[in-house]
Design brief:
Oligomer: single chain
Order of helices and strands: HH
Number of domains: 1
Mean pLDDT: 76
Radius of gyration: 11 Å
Length: 49
């Protein structure tokens, strides 16, 4: 779960750097939702690449 959180946090920070003001608002809204889903699922969510 820590590794997943670290990856998501890094991704979010990268997107925020590249995004404009609106993108930052969207990222700040969706980030807690994603983190909440991970916690709710007990870390069982997987990312398909």
């Amino acid at each position: 779960m820590k590794a997943t959180f670290a990856c998501l946090h890094g991704l979010i920070r990268t997107v925020e750097k590249e995004a404009g003001k609106l993108g930052k608002v969207v990222a700040s809204i969706t980030s807690p939702i994603v983190i909440g889903l991970i916690r709710w699922s007990g870390g069982q969510l997987s990312v398909v690449s």
